[in-house]
Amino acid sequence: MLVITDEGETRYVSRYHEDNDEFHRENHLHDEGLDPMVKIALLGVLILALFILVLLMILRTIARPVESLQDWAKNINIDDLKDPIPNFKYKELNDLAGIIHNSLGKVSKTLEREQEFLRYASHELRTPIAIIRSNSSILLK
After folding, report:
1. Would you kindly state where each structural domain of the chain is located, as residue ranges?
2. Which among 76, 114, 121, 139 is least surrounded, fewest beta carbons within 10 Å?
3. What is the DSSP-derived secondary structure letter of residue 84?
């Protein structure tokens, strides 16, 4: 133990017992059970296992909404665009679902415009092709 005297000197005070076993027996510090280091090690392993269990529970709680977002994104199609976006518990996941929903909506509109263009283009191209075909057959005759 560190002791500072009134004069400002530093002194160290200690007590030493030559026979530790006898000291333990006299003061009832010696347990008949496990070694104290084994107890500390077991306590450390128990705390570590508890920490890992809590961590796994937290990760599972976070992973469930992410997995449901993944399943929803895999299974969404153009027909589902009219349905509301499900709630995924976290704002960030809901934002991602909104981005996916909007992107699929834009792709759907682009696809619709392309199909409309192809319908008009095929109709408009049929007339010149028919004219060229009939003129070429007349030229061959």
Report:
1. 2-140
2. 139
3. P
Asked if 69 and 93 count as a contact pair (C-beta separation under 8 A), the reply is: yes
Structure tokens belonging to residue 53: 């269990």
Measured CA to CA, the distance from residue 126 to residue 138 in angstroms comes to: 18
pLDDT tens profile 89-108: 889 999 999 999 999 889 88
Q: Provide CB contacts within 8 A for 93, sequence distance 6+.
A: 65, 66, 69
pLDDT tens-digit profile of 3-40? 788 888 888 777 766 666 666 566 554 456 788 999 99
- The token duo for 92 is 């960030």
Q: Residue 69, class by beta-carbon neighbours within 10 Å (0-12 exposed, 13-18 middle, 19+ buried)?
A: buried
